[in-house]
Design goal:
single chain; mainly beta; 4-stranded antiparallel β-sheet; ribosomal protein; rRNA-binding
C-alpha cells in the first residue's frame, strides 16, 4: 500500500490515491490541480523520510469544492458586571481528491 504524509494548511495529513481530504481554503477553481509538499513516503516495506530524497516526490490533488466548516459559538460572560458577548465562527475549507503520488 502506498501512502504519504503531506503538509496541508499547517497540519499533516495521511493521504493515498483516491482519498478525499478537507484542507484550509486553497485558491483556485474547482477542477484545478494543486501540489502538496511530502514529509514522508511509504511504499510497501520502504519508508522514506529524508528531505533530500523527498525533494523530487510530489502529491498531486484535484480541487473538488469549497465549503464551510461547522459553526463554533464563542461566549464570554463575567459575573455581576453585566458583561456578556457572543460570537460565531465558521472555517473556510476546501475539499480535494488525491490523484497521484509520485516518488
Amino acid at each position: 500500500m502506498v501512502y504519504a504524509i503531506v503538509r496541508a494548511g499547517g497540519r499533516q495529513e495521511k493521504v493515498s490515491v483516491g482519498d478525499l481530504v478537507t484542507l484550509d481554503r486553497v485558491a483556485g477553481e474547482a477542477g484545478s490541480t494543486i501540489e502538496l509538499p511530502v514529509l514522508m513516503l511509504v511504499d510497501g516495506e520502504k519508508v522514506q523520510a529524508d528531505p533530500k530524497a523527498l525533494a523530487s516526490a510530489k502529491v498531486t490533488a484535484e480541487k473538488v469544492e469549497d465549503l464551510r466548516g461547522p459553526k463554533i459559538v464563542i461566549q464570554k460572560y463575567k459575573n455581576k458586571t453585566g458583561y456578556k458577548k457572543r460570537q460565531g465562527f465558521r472555517a473556510e475549507l476546501t475539499q480535494v481528491k488525491v490523484t497521484a503520488i509520485d516518488a
